[in-house]
Amino acid sequence: MALSAVYLSGVYLWSLAAMWGGLWAKPENQPEAVLEGPFPWSHQRLPTNIRPDHYFIHLHPNFSSTPDSDLSASDSLTGHVLILVTALDNTSLIVLNSKGLTIKEATLTDLTLSVAVQMSLRVLGSPSSEQLALLSDKPLIAGRKYQLSVSYSGSFSRSYSGLYKASYQTPDGDTRTIAVTNFEPSSARQVFPCFDEPSMKAVFSLVVVRRSQHISLSNMPQRFSKHLEEDLVEDHYQTSIRMSSYLLAFVVGDFSVSSLLTSICSQVSVFAASHQINQTDHALLEAVKTLDFYEEYLQIIYPLPKLDLVALPDFESGAMENWGLVTFRETSLLIGQFDSLRGQLWVSLVTLWRKTPSAPLRSERCSVIFLTTR
Ligand SMILES: *[C@@H]1O[C@H](CO)[C@@H](O)[C@H](O)[C@H]1NC(C)=O
Ligand SMILES: *[C@@H]1O[C@H](CO)[C@@H](O)[C@H](O)[C@H]1NC(C)=O
Ligand SMILES: *[C@@H]1O[C@H](CO)[C@@H](O)[C@H](O)[C@H]1NC(C)=O
């Protein structure tokens, strides 16, 4: 896999053809790469010798349409993550989090060299501390940028954390299944190897593979979709703003949508099963009012171009305020349970205004909103 990236005055200039073309070639049936041996890191917290800057995550949650109660063994997750990191010390050891993932291959590329040379990394796992140690034969040099590449497979969770399957019945009695993530506080590591501590913030570029009858949603708007073989579609998402790993989210399934624009042109949408879409008007109007209110009150513009609210049939808490994709238990979003709705919505939306970076001006947002596609 040839991939070039140049680090230039704070910006990674990627070879786009490599990035979005051949990069995500399916890994062959590689054996598991984890070696036996004493684990070289003895703390629960990660070392601070490596800083993640940018994750490129490619995920295929491959799930059947049988409901979650008989979670079929064939449901699986295939993943590949590229992490652009900066070495903060000279070190041969990279430690990151991973739980329940089968690592197929891990490699490292020094991005400061003019000729990219990919080095294999030795991989050790520590299930008890939910960590992977990646060992390089050649030390990483403080101040240099590297690209860490890990291909792996995983599974659907049997709880409401990580990646799990939920299901609902249509009025005709059909069962529909959806794939949902819930990462707070420490379940992102069940879906991709990552530096899963809130202070180790980075930006995320996600690609999700889905079947063509489904849609996918994530924190950011889609850049484009691409048809693959076998009725599969690859949804490529815009790069997120800098955030903690537990705020990444995606949902795959069939949903209907209703949308409105706020006064500064953020697109607010409520997603629900199609037979429930007529119960979303209240949530949609309240969400738009809430965004407008907080922007005025806090004098801070909501930093993302869109906000999706999704009603989910199986969801542990009332709501999870993933940036740009707030997931709700159905009863907290759909009308009918009116009383719980208002409080839940306000609470989950105000938490979106954490320390926000500079947000676009109203005029910029309003002029681009008509150019972006979901
Ligand atoms: C998805 O899972 C099914 C059932 O295990 C399998 O037959 C199929 O090959 C998988 N698809 C891909 C693209 O891996
Ligand atoms: C890190 O390694 C480089 C190159 O080998 C060396 O020049 C530098 O002094 C080392 N820095 C530290 C802090 O050890
Ligand atoms: C929503 O539509 C369904 C039929 O699709 C209907 O049975 C239900 O009563 C409607 N609910 C509301 C609140 O209008």
From TrEMBL:
<keyword id="KW-0735">Signal-anchor</keyword>
<dbReference type="InterPro" id="IPR045357">
    <property type="entry name" value="Aminopeptidase_N-like_N"/>
</dbReference>
<feature type="domain" description="Aminopeptidase N-like N-terminal">
    <location>
        <begin position="52"/>
        <end position="247"/>
    </location>
</feature>
<feature type="signal peptide">
    <location>
        <begin position="1"/>
        <end position="25"/>
    </location>
</feature>
<keyword id="KW-0378">Hydrolase</keyword>
<dbReference type="Pfam" id="PF17900">
    <property type="entry name" value="Peptidase_M1_N"/>
</dbReference>
<dbReference type="InterPro" id="IPR001930">
    <property type="entry name" value="Peptidase_M1"/>
</dbReference>
<protein>
    <submittedName>
        <fullName>Uncharacterized protein</fullName>
    </submittedName>
</protein>
<dbReference type="GO" id="GO:0005615">
    <property type="term" value="C:extracellular space"/>
</dbReference>
<keyword id="KW-0472">Membrane</keyword>
<dbReference type="GO" id="GO:0043171">
    <property type="term" value="P:peptide catabolic process"/>
</dbReference>
<keyword id="KW-0325">Glycoprotein</keyword>
<dbReference type="GO" id="GO:0006508">
    <property type="term" value="P:proteolysis"/>
</dbReference>
<dbReference type="InterPro" id="IPR034016">
    <property type="entry name" value="M1_APN-typ"/>
</dbReference>
<keyword id="KW-0812">Transmembrane</keyword>
<dbReference type="Pfam" id="PF01433">
    <property type="entry name" value="Peptidase_M1"/>
</dbReference>
<feature type="domain" description="Peptidase M1 membrane alanine aminopeptidase">
    <location>
        <begin position="285"/>
        <end position="336"/>
    </location>
</feature>
<keyword id="KW-1133">Transmembrane helix</keyword>
<dbReference type="GO" id="GO:0042277">
    <property type="term" value="F:peptide binding"/>
</dbReference>
<dbReference type="InterPro" id="IPR042097">
    <property type="entry name" value="Aminopeptidase_N-like_N_sf"/>
</dbReference>
<keyword id="KW-0479">Metal-binding</keyword>
<keyword id="KW-0732">Signal</keyword>
<keyword id="KW-0862">Zinc</keyword>
<keyword id="KW-0482">Metalloprotease</keyword>
<dbReference type="GO" id="GO:0005737">
    <property type="term" value="C:cytoplasm"/>
</dbReference>
<dbReference type="GO" id="GO:0016020">
    <property type="term" value="C:membrane"/>
</dbReference>
<dbReference type="GO" id="GO:0008270">
    <property type="term" value="F:zinc ion binding"/>
</dbReference>
<dbReference type="InterPro" id="IPR050344">
    <property type="entry name" value="Peptidase_M1_aminopeptidases"/>
</dbReference>
<keyword id="KW-0645">Protease</keyword>
<dbReference type="InterPro" id="IPR014782">
    <property type="entry name" value="Peptidase_M1_dom"/>
</dbReference>
<dbReference type="GO" id="GO:0070006">
    <property type="term" value="F:metalloaminopeptidase activity"/>
</dbReference>
<comment type="similarity">
    <text>Belongs to the peptidase M1 family.</text>
</comment>
